[in-house]
Design a protein that fits this description.
Layout (H helix, E strand, L loop, with lengths): L2 H14 L4 E9 L9 E4 L4 E3 L4 H16 L9 E4 H5 L6 E8 L2 H6 L8 E5 L3 H10 L5 E6 L14 E5 L15 E4 L4 H12 L6 E4 L3 H13 L4 H6 L14 H29 L4
Parallel strand pairs: 6-7, 6-9, 7-8, 9-10
Antiparallel strand pairs: 1-2, 1-5, 2-3, 4-5
């Protein structure tokens, strides 16, 4: 379950009125299973989310359920756990876990998760559907676009993957936020070309991936340059798509390679943003 889904679960559980404890990784040092800010929810008979599994999570669940066996609302002590000495885990780090009763104040202070990236994906064929399935449990924002409404799966899908069936799909390129990633994998090479031209004319596009072979890339490069697309932007276009070394043409294999590539791009950008924030002058 991603962070957005866990927050929605917290809202639902609070509305049901059953006592619930929120477990949060308050501090993390060294090598630890999950980062600070990670949460999970614990009720008497079930839980949602994870702070990393293993003995650490077992201790957290036992501590939360001990509180649930007592009076609701009573203060719950934090746990500071060196993973090696206290839990016999070889991670080598230490975590501090805080425990709170789920109430309106906790929900109000629960931050909205920031998506790792915003993706505009064109094409609801086999590869597009396989990519969408892999993105379902992740904290990302996706606009999934196709001319053909019937091409999308019958189920509605999660909220963070928005489906859009429109005739002029090229016009949707301008609606993507600055820094968005783009994937072009439609049923038509001519449509692919028109989409790539629109995307490459956006200087604020974060990344463009085009499905196809090296031969398709060479043909598209020539035609895009003839149409006046910026040469530097054309050179940065990823085609073929997917992490190198992951071979296979089955839609599911292509999807794994592409999603891994997107996650690497998103993580690299997040790392740069964190580094810039750390260097920024305070006050």
């Amino acid at each position: 379950m991603n962070a957005s889904g866990l927050r929605r679960t917290a809202l639902a559980w609070h509305a049901q009125g059953r006592p619930t404890v929120v477990v949060c990784v308050q501090r993390a040092a060294g090598s630890v299973p999950r980062e600070a800010g990670t949460r999970m929810l614990v009720q008497a008979g079930c839980e949602a989310g994870t702070i990393g599994g293993g003995h650490l999570e077992w201790r957290a669940l036992a501590h939360a359920r001990q509180a649930l066996d007592g009076p609701a609302g009573a203060a719950i002590d934090d746990l500071h756990l060196p993973l090696g000495p206290a839990l016999g885990q070889c991670c080598g780090g230490a975590v501090t876990l805080c425990f709170e009763w789920l109430d309106a104040q906790v929900l109000q202070s629960w931050p909205q998760p920031v998506p790792l990236f915003h993706l505009q994906m064109h094409g609801a064929g086999h590869v597009g559907q396989a990519i969408a399935r892999l993105l379902e449990p992740l904290d990302v924002q996706v606009d999934w676009i196709d001319e053909r409404d019937a091409a999308f799966p019958a189920d509605s899908g999660p909220e963070h993957i928005r489906r859009l069936a429109v005739d002029a799909v090229e016009d949707e390129v301008r609606h993507a936020p600055p820094g968005a990633f783009f994937l072009v994998l439609t049923h038509s090479h001519e449509l692919d070309l028109r989409l790539c031209e629109r995307i490459l004319r956006r200087p604020d596009a974060g990344w463009l991936g085009l499905i196809g072979s090296a031969t398709k890339r060479a043909r598209f490069e020539r035609r895009l340059l003839e149409r006046g697309a910026p040469a530097q932007a054309v050179a940065r276009m990823a085609c073929p798509i997917g992490l190198p070394g992951l071979t296979g043409k089955a839609p599911e294999v292509v999807a794994v390679a592409v999603v891994a590539q997107l996650l690497m791009l998103g993580s690299a950008r997040a790392g740069v943003a964190e580094a810039c924030a750390a260097l920024a002058p305070s006050g």
